[in-house]
């Protein structure tokens, strides 16, 4: 219950409410409190919160964030998580402490071990991205935000049932989802992992589209125009005939991900395939030469240890940028009659 906790700060805002910093009074442990508001009583608890809490109660993996408590409060609910001072997004953008190739390899190994655990337990995450990969005080990466996660199941005829295609953040959304696919597998997570690996190498997204159509156009112009041969079932996807793109030839991978070691480039290619059935699995990826080629993944003792409040460094930067923009806009408006 909430009387066992006290709020000590603000972490951020999610899709369904605030994420606050708190302390568990009986133990003195610092925690993250995800406060979820129910807008209308008749609407009940948001389905994403039910899924997240149910799945997190069943998983037990050091590379997946732990749900410590869950209880009603007022017209909402509170999910209590272990406190994580930073995320992969912040670590990649900390120019004062750049991530080395060995450290990036360690992050990938932890991500794949967590994802392999989820997939082996028939769970697909459906929203993997750097912002949903949290980093502990010890430097350990943990998969978080399972609000869009779903169990992978088949009916009695061993046929997949439909899922919504409105999942995953756009930059990490698999092309089958962009074409409106309702029948898909955990391979959508594997596409996202390929995008994340490229981002770890480049320190910027590989496919940063501003709309769904631009996102699909960016993928096609980079990987080349897909065909039924390279992507079986392409022409039967729901949105395939709704838009056409100019014929494109594949851009060399060395151009798409510049200054990328060959073994890392090979692994990225294994994830970023049109044919979802051919994407390398998380388990297979852990045995890829990428992890056995120098520099080797460094031990946890050599990983960056984010200090308490590491996220605030980037929040302050965003606030300053907003203030500078407002001041610039004011100055420019003085010249407009």
Automatic annotation (TrEMBL):
What's a GO cellular component annotated to this UniProt protein? cilium
Provide the binding site for ATP.
34
* Keywords assigned by UniProt, alphabetized: ATP-binding, Cell cycle, Cell division, Cell projection, Cilium, Cytoplasm, Developmental protein, Kinase, Nucleotide-binding, Nucleus, Serine/threonine-protein kinase, Transferase
Query: Domain Protein kinase: where?
Result: 5-291
UniProt keyword Zinc-finger present: no
Query: Cross-referenced SMART domains, in alphabetical order?
Result: S_TKc
Catalytically driven reaction(s): L-seryl-[protein] + ATP = O-phospho-L-seryl-[protein] + ADP + H(+); L-threonyl-[protein] + ATP = O-phospho-L-threonyl-[protein] + ADP + H(+)
Q: Which GO terms describe its molecular function?
A: ATP binding; cyclin-dependent protein serine/threonine kinase activity
GO BP of this protein? cell division
Q: Does the keyword Cell membrane apply?
A: no
Q: What class of enzyme is it?
A: transferase
Cite the Gene3D superfamilies for this sequence.
Phosphorylase Kinase, domain 1 (3.30.200.20), Transferase(Phosphotransferase) domain 1 (1.10.510.10)
Q: What is its main location?
A: other
In short, the EC number is 2.7.11.22
User: Subcellular location, in the record's words?
Assistant: Cell projection, Cilium; Cytoplasm; Nucleus
CDD domains to which the protein is assigned, alphabetical: STKc_CCRK (cd07832)
What family does this belong to? Belongs to the protein kinase superfamily. CMGC Ser/Thr protein kinase family. CDC2/CDKX subfamily.
This protein's name: Cyclin-dependent kinase 20
Organism the protein comes from: Frankliniella occidentalis
Gene from which this protein is expressed:
LOC113211605
């Amino acid at each position: 219950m909430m009387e066992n906790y006290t709020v000590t700060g603000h972490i951020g805002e999610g899709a369904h409410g605030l994420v606050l910093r708190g302390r568990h009074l009986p133990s003195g442990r610092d925690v993250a409190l995800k406060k979820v508001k129910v807008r209308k009583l008749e609407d009940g608890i948001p389905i994403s919160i039910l899924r997240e809490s149910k799945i997190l109660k069943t998983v037990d993996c050091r590379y997946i964030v732990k749900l410590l408590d869950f209880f009603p409060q007022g017209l909402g609910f509170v999910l209590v998580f272990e406190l994580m001072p930073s995320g992969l997004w912040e670590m990649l953008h900390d120019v004062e402490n750049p991530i080395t190739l060995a450290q990036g390899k360690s992050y990938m190994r932890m991500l794949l071990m967590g994802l392999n655990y989820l997939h082996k337990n028939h769970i697909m995450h459906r929203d993997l991205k750097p912002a949903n990969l949290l980093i502990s005080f010890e430097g350990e990466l943990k998969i978080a935000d399972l609000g869009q996660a779903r169990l992978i199941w088949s009916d009695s005829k061993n046929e997949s049932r439909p899922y919504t295609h409105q999942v995953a953040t756009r930059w990490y959304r698999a092309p089958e989802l962009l074409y409106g696919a309702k029948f898909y597998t955990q391979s959508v997570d594997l596409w996202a992992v390929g995008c994340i690996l490229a981002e770890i190498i480049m320190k910027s997204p590989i496919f940063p589209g501003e709309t769904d159509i631009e996102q699909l156009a960016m993928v096609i112009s980079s990987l080349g125009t897909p065909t039924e041969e390279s992507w079986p079932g392409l022409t039967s996807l729901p949105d395939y005939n709704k838009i056409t793109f100019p014929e494109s030839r594949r851009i060399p991978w060395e151009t798409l991900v510049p200054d990328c070691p060959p073994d890392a480039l090979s692994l990225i290619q294994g994830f970023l395939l049109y044919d979802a059935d051919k994407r390398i699995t998380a388990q297979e990826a852990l045995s890829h030469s990428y992890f056995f080629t120098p520099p080797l993944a460094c031990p946890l003792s050599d990983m960056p240890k984010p200090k308490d409040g590491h996220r605030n460094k980037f929040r302050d930067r965003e606030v300053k940028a907003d203030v500078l923009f407002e001041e610039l806009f004011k100055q420019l408006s003085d010249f407009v009659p």
